[in-house]
């Protein structure tokens, strides 16, 4: 009964948020060049250096159209690897001059002390770094024998700053599922305060590599690990917002599942496309900054994101939990959109 | 850190997305904006000419910047009540020689302007 009331109230909250659709969070895919060649590349990011980096002035012209930006509005630099751009700091400073805050997602390979200081000087406010295991498993996924050594240094630098709101993300797979507690201890030792765990969705190279994907029972093991870790105080551990996790909802995250793509989250992609999270199928682009007024697109389009009834198809068509899940994370819809790519709740239910 | 659903529900009921902290799947946490912008100019006390290449260091952290050709500098740093800055000529005699100086700033706003005059060494 308690859960039913809680879920009902949370659904009303989500409806209110969707109607309001305030833009709080804007990804800028500033480059698609990357200095690593991760074996899961193509699942959630792509390495496509054929695209030239977007000139900052083009991005700026697009976002100055935003009328009365939300108080907590943040531009999130993503890629590719943003630190390959030499002008990240000057881009960040220009954003701050105009009252926008900015943050960055990085693989940490180029994050040395000099870069840490210049980014802080430029007003970087939040940072996310990828760590996909201890030395062997991280180097395996990142496909580079030096990547752990580099990210180890980078995590130490970022965690030492009380200014940065910093977290570490881990893609959980066959190679690291059994070392999660060791990774947790490592992160505590480095002074990290927050850790988010993901799974890898079966697209791109990940579709053909079973080592990257978890079995049903491993997925449940991951959620149990997160739930248990959240009872301890040293490190804030959470499951990412990638999907609805049924009976684990409110137990593995700070709140219930709410995919805010296109509701509060937008993006400007490398070719100028206007969309939501960068890992969403590119056919969902709602406009292009080179042809359209960015904010007008945000205000008047994005219908597939704000009304998700079209996702009630395939296995979602007769699902009893649809009203709480609404088709899972938006990035789980690819190709012909006839079925959700991953149903996290199914994984839980099918686990022994 | 037991999941306190009552607390989370309260947040959901009472706060708009402005205050409701969230992050996108592959994005960063949100920035709580706890910083201050320090900007200023360094000139020679003797000639009033800009002092370029002066290293400005924050006492209790790793951050530093250098003045540009016009003697200007600017950086963001953690919000705090007082901030001690050290101005130091580190390029020897290349652009004249200045005597090291410390300054204690009282931070009362999100932006602080500071103009510094450095004595030249004889």
What does this structure look like?
The complex is a heterodimer of chains A (352) and B (122). In chain A, helix 8 (216-229) links the parallel strand 6 and strand 7. Chain A is 32% helix and 14% strand. Chain A has helices spanning 2-20, 56-63, 88-97, 113-121, 135-142, 147-159, 180-190, 216-229, 294-300, 303-306, 322-325, 344-350, and strands spanning 25-29, 74-78, 101-106, 124-130, 165-172, 194-199, 236-239, 265-268, 273-275, 287-288. Chain A has one domain: TIM Barrel, CATH 3.20.20. Chain A contains twelve helices and ten strands. Chain A is an alpha/beta fold. In chain A, helix 8 crosses helix 12 (344-350). In chain A, 49% of the residues are buried. Chain A has a ten-stranded mixed sheet, with helices on one face. Chain B starts with a helix and ends with a strand. With 122 residues, chain B is mostly beta strands. Chain B has a domain at 35-118: Immunoglobulins (Immunoglobulin-like). Chain B contains one helix and seven strands, in the order H-E-E-E-E-E-E-E. In chain B, the strands form two sheets. Chain B has a four-stranded antiparallel sheet with strand order 3-2-5-6, with no helix packed on it. A three-stranded mixed sheet of chain B has the order 4-1-7, with no helix packed on it. The interface between A and B is large, with 70 and 38 residues.
Condensed summary:
By secondary structure, chain A is α/β, with parallel strands linked by helices.
